[in-house]
Amino acid sequence: MKPLLLCLALAAWPAVGEQRGESVAPIALYTQFQQDPPPAVLASLQDEVESIMSPIGMHFEWRSLSASRGNEVSAELAVITFKGRCDTAGMASRSINPGALGWTHVSDGIILPFSDVDCDRIRGFIQKELLTLDHVGRVAAFGRAIGRVVAHELYHIFANTQHHGSDGVAKAAYTAQELVADDFQFEQKETLALRAGKVHSLVEHTTGTPPL
Ligand SMILES: [Zn+2]
Q1: Residue 204: inside a domain, yes or no?
Q2: How far is CA 103 from CA 114, 153, 156, in A?
Q3: 188-205: per-residue pLDDT in tens?
Q4: I need a surface site. Which of 9, 14, 50, 151 has the fewest CB within 10 A?
Q5: What is the pTM for the complete model shown?
Q6: Number of folded domains in the chain?
C-alpha cells in the first residue's frame, strides 16, 4: 500500500510544481498524539489529508513532533495536536453533539500554524454512523473523518484565513454524514484560496524547535 502511494505522489510531482509556480517541497506536518493511534487509523487519516490536499498542489511530510530534533528546515510547516483517543473502542449507538472538533490558534488576528484536533469529540459525533460499519470499514471511516478535520484546519493555516466556505471541507460545521461520506472535498473558491495562499510569516518557526 505504502510504496504505491509514494509512486502516485511522485507521479503527480511535476504538475504540482506547475500549479503552484513555486517550490514543490512538501510541507512539514508535525503531529503529536495524546495517545498513539492504531496504525490503520493513522494511515487512513494521512491518506485522506493527501487525497483532499494533493489536487490543490499541497503535499505533506508527516513528522512526529516528539522525534523532532529541532534542526529540520522546512519552508512551510504546521503542528497538529490530537486530543483524546484516536481509536474506535468503546462506542455507543447514540449521537453526541460535542462542540468544536478541531481548532486553529490565532494570536492578535494572526493565524498561527498550530491546530488541535479532538479525536474523542469526532468519535462521539459520528459513532452512531461508525457502528453501522464492520471493523475494517469503521477504522477506515474514522481515520478519514479525522483527516477531514485536519484538512479543514490546514485550510485556515495555508489559505491564511479565519473565514469559512459555504460548503465542502471549508464549511464551518460538518454533519455526521459528511464526515463519514465516501468523498468530501474543498469547493472551488476555497481551492483557489489555498492555491493562492502565500508562505506567510513562518520564518521564525522554521529553524528552531516548534513551541510545545
Ligand atoms: Zn474553521
Answers
A1: no
A2: 9, 7, 9
A3: 999 999 998 844 433 333
A4: 14
A5: 0.82
A6: 1
